[in-house]
Design brief:
The protein is α/β, with parallel strands linked by helices. 55% of the residues lie in helices and 8% in strands. A 5-stranded parallel beta sheet has the order 2-1-3-4-5, sandwiched between helices. Helix 11 links the parallel strand 3 and strand 4. Helix 9 runs parallel beside helix 12. The longest helix is centred in the middle third of the chain and has 22 residues. The chain starts with 9 loop residues before the first helix and ends in a 5-residue tail after the last helix.
Amino acid sequence: MNRDTNGSSCLERIRLHESSFTEASRKIAGQIISSPDTIVHMTVCQAAEFCATSEASIVRFCKALGYNGYSDFKIFLASELSLVTEPMFSLLEPDDDDADVLQKVFAAEIKALQDTAAMIDEEAFKLAVDCILSARKVEFYAFGNSRPITFDVNYRMLKIGVNSYVGIDIDDSLMHANMLEPGDVAVAVSHTGSTKYTCMALEAAHGRGARTICITAFPHSPITRVSDICLFAAAIEEFDFQCTTVASKTAEMAIMDALYTAVAFRKGESAKQYIKFTDRIVYVERY
């Protein structure tokens, strides 16, 4: 089996590749996601009829996900379904009370973290850490729901002595991106990978010769085309009342937390000394 799928589950692979699917593939994906326990017991002929498509389309779909064919896909799907005793999380229902909301949100975030941990490319992660450690300067780009993540990691990177920066607005980010040089690193966060200004900033940094890193949920999104290193978070279905799920942001934050911690750990005593120094600076703010 092809190993470029990063260890993600069958259903997670479908969600990851969704943006690149043809109309026929989207139809197949929708049927599999909605009825995996039905598909797993079907022959390729039955699956084609169930999905209102051809047998060849079913086989091509499975191979596009990294499997050898439909039989190979069914083996992995059956194995995964046998491990599931109950849904990890479900969407909110009209009669849910506050306790239900609490449990469903926590379950969704737990699943996002588990799926992201299973699919993260460890070599890509290590390379990202190497780049940050050797960088002259590190900049972070994000807009919308992902933006608070960059402010948090920028603050923590500064505390361990990394020359880090996050723009105060779109114009500021674009100007700084256009002033980067080879040896600098730009890190962008976009759940969809299609946020216009985030992609523009990373593209500018890439054009200046900086090493570029993206954190996104969609491997075939525009931002990956200007990224030297891609770190993928799990793509979680949306709850009501949210444009981008809290669960997805939790997964992206976990990747940033891991990057920060790995960089700090590798810096060792140097990071500890910087933390002591920066703590003394902010100590006057405390009672």
